[in-house]
């Protein structure tokens, strides 16, 4: 089994990033990557996918955004080549953008009808192949020096020839924000579970009754990380949900429950951290994390300590 296609969902707007997200797509907002180069969020996500073995990328966007994405990437490419042509970083940036553009396809979500509906728009791009699904708001940093988070789930999906989702053990007071699941340990793997039940944003009492997973610390549950490898059967299940709920929001979580009931679907405790750039201070948190994981770690630490000292309470 080969996994050569990735879908990145980037159709939603976000009021927390107002007014920036009204003039620039939120996934085009810049952060300094671990290599020290300032890049749009979606470029960092796409680079991780390509470095994990992906050959083609599809961005699911809102109506009218395709031209804006292409214009923004083309401007970055031209600027890197023409204005900063003497800089090593600019040559690297231009090459990365060209590599992405050469492999990039766009599809439009015509109406904001939920995350599952957004994913379904990529059906014709994916065709009948397994694919990597990434969220355009999430930046991930692997704890493994030689393997991205995307590569971790791709490798397991290839080995087991099935769908795989990335999960993080999450403290109970936070699970109401995430899709949460339970399952049983799978084979002799460490941190791999065969999924049995999934609930979208459960209450603590509901999780205590239905979602406890053997082996986790007390008060912790397995929550979605926002990164998946799916077999193409997902689109059949999404299609059933869309036709049964015409005009309503289509969530991905209930469809994943159906997937787990119909065939083997595994959850992998990912060795890494995820940062949601769309939440309050999420962009700041992601930037700090990238800085601490990157080449300028000492400078970032010094700056943070100085800032904390400047605002210490007397």
Topology diagram in text:
Layout: E1 5-10, H1 20-23, E2 30-32, E3 38-40, H2 41-51, E4 56-62, H3 65-82, H4 88-102, E5 104-109, H5 115-120, H6 123-126, E6 131-135, E7 138-142, H7 149-160, E8 163-171, E9 179-185, E10 192-200, H8 204-210, E11 220-230, H9 233-244, H10 253-262, E12 265-269, E13 272-276, H11 282-293, H12 297-310
Parallel strand pairs: 1-4, 1-6, 4-5, 8-12
Antiparallel strand pairs: 2-3, 6-11, 7-13, 8-11, 9-10, 9-11, 10-12
Helix pairs in contact: 3-4, 9-10, 11-12
From the N-terminal CA to the C-terminal CA, the straight-line distance is 61 Å
Major pleated sheet: 5 strands, mixed, barrel
User: What value does the average pLDDT take?
Assistant: 93
CATH topology: Spore Coat Polysaccharide Biosynthesis Protein SpsA, Chain A
Strand content: 25-35%
The count of DSSP E runs of length 2 or more, i.e. the number of strands, is: 13
Anisotropy-based shape: globular
Strand order of the largest sheet: 8-11-9-10-12
Q: What oligomeric assembly is this protein in?
A: single chain
Rg over C-alpha atoms, rounded to the nearest angstrom = 20 Å
List the secondary-structure elements in sequence, H or E: EHEEHEHHEHHEEHEEEHEHHEEHH
By secondary-structure content and strand pairing, the structural class works out as alpha/beta
The first-level CATH class is given as Alpha Beta
Low-confidence segments: none
CATH superfamily: Spore Coat Polysaccharide Biosynthesis Protein SpsA, Chain A
Which architecture name does CATH use? Answer: Alpha-Beta Complex
Q: What's the total helix number?
A: 12
Bin the helical content.
Answer: 25-40%
Number of domains: 1
């Amino acid at each position: 089994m080969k996994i050569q296609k990735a879908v990145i969902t980037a159709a939603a707007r976000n009021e927390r990033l107002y007014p920036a997200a009204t003039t620039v797509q939120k996934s085009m907002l810049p952060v300094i990557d671990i290599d020290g180069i300032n890049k749009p969020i979606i470029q960092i996500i796409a680079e991780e996918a390509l470095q994990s073995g992906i050959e083609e990328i599809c961005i699911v966007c809102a109506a009218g955004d395709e031209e804006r994405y292409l214009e923004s990437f083309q401007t970055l490419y031209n600027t890197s080549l023409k204005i900063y042509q003497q800089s090593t970083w600019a040559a690297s940036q231009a090459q990365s953008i060209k590599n992405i553009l050469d492999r990039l396809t766009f599809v439009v979500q015509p109406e904001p009808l939920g995350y599952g509906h957004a994913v379904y728009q990529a059906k014709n791009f994916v065709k009948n192949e397994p694919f990597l699904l990434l969220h355009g708001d999430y930046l991930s940093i692997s704890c493994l020096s030689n393997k991205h988070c995307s590569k971790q789930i791709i490798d397991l999906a290839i080995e087991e020839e099935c769908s795989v989702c990335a999960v993080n053990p999450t403290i109970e007071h936070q699970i109401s924000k995430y899709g949460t699941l339970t399952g049983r340990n799978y084979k002799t793997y460490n941190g791999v579970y065969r999924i049995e039940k999934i609930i979208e944003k459960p209450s603590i009492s509901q999780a205590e009754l239905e979602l406890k997973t053997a082996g986790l610390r007390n008060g912790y549950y397995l929550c979605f990380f926002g990164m998946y490898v799916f077999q193409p059967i997902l689109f059949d299940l999404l299609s059933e949900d869309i036709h049964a709920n015409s005009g309503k929001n289509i969530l991905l979580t209930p469809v994943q429950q159906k997937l787990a009931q119909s065939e083997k679907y595994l959850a992998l405790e990912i060795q890494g951290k995820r940062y949601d750039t769309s939440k309050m201070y999420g962009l700041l948190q992601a930037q700090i994390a990238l800085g601490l994981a990157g080449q300028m770690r000492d400078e970032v630490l010094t700056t943070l300590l100085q800032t904390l000292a400047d605002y210490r309470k007397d």
